[in-house]
Amino acid sequence: MILIGTMNLTRTRDTGQFYCPTCGEMQDYRLRSRRPFLTLYFIPVVPVGAAEMFVDCRGCRDKWDVSVLEMNQQQHEQVQLEQFHDEAFRATLLVVLADGTISEREIDALQSISGHLFGRRIDREELGEMCSIAQQNRIRAKNYVLTVSRRWNTAQRRTALQAMFLAATAEGTMGQHQTRLMTEMRDILEMTDREYQDAIDAALEWENL
């Protein structure tokens, strides 16, 4: 019986230091290539695909696209900040959509919140597209925040909660469903009752709202 299969062969192409976004500091890295091979009796004999290059951090062991080597600390931090703002706004949008409807007051609140996060008010067309995507994919606010908040720092968790609270109270008060959802957000973001209340009090002072 002839045994034929495939396997990936990984080799180190270069080493050096880079700014690791996960570690938040300079770390040693290995530039590695991974390529699939056809095997005969478990021996790689023929390459069956192109080599994939990636950066392996020796500190956290995370793997990155090679473009990570072209960015300095400041550029990485800017990209991460922009990513957070996008995630925080999407979480806020999902809180509004949790009851299946969106009102004019909520639209206005979302546009104001976008001004605070992005430095510009998102237009209605772009907001509508984001709503459609969220509804079509049936993304739940709780599940989304549970996933993305793992990489948020303390200040970012506070900012995201403030944005979600302001959207949830766009109509003046929160209903039972929204109150429960915000309580879940407090727990997901690992805030104490005092931290939660302080964040809400500060949210009311946002200049754009």
Overall outline: elongated
| Proportion of beta-strand residues | 15-25%
Uncertain spans:
none
Largest sheet: 5 strands, antiparallel
CATH architecture of the largest domain: Orthogonal Bundle
Overall mean pLDDT stands at 87
CATH topology of the largest domain: TerB-like
CATH homologous superfamily descriptor of the largest domain = TerB-like
Question: Overview of this structure, please?
Answer:
- It comes from Roseiconus nitratireducens.
- Residues 19-63 form the Zinc-ribbon domain.
- InterPro entries: DjlA_N (IPR007791), TerB-like (IPR029024), Zinc_ribbon_15 (IPR031493).
- Helix 1 runs parallel beside helix 5 (154-168), helix 4 runs parallel beside helix 6 and helix 5 (154-168) runs antiparallel to helix 6.
- 48% of the residues lie in helices and 22% in strands.
- The protein is elongated and about 70 Å long.
- The model has no long low-confidence stretch (mean pLDDT 87).
- The chain is built from seven helices and five strands, in the order E-E-E-E-E-H-H-H-H-H-H-H.
- It folds into two domains: 4-71, no CATH class; 74-203, TerB-like (Orthogonal Bundle), CATH 1.10.3680.
- It has 209 residues and is α+β, with helices and mostly antiparallel strands.
- Strands 1, 2, 3, 4 and 5 form a five-stranded antiparallel sheet that branches.
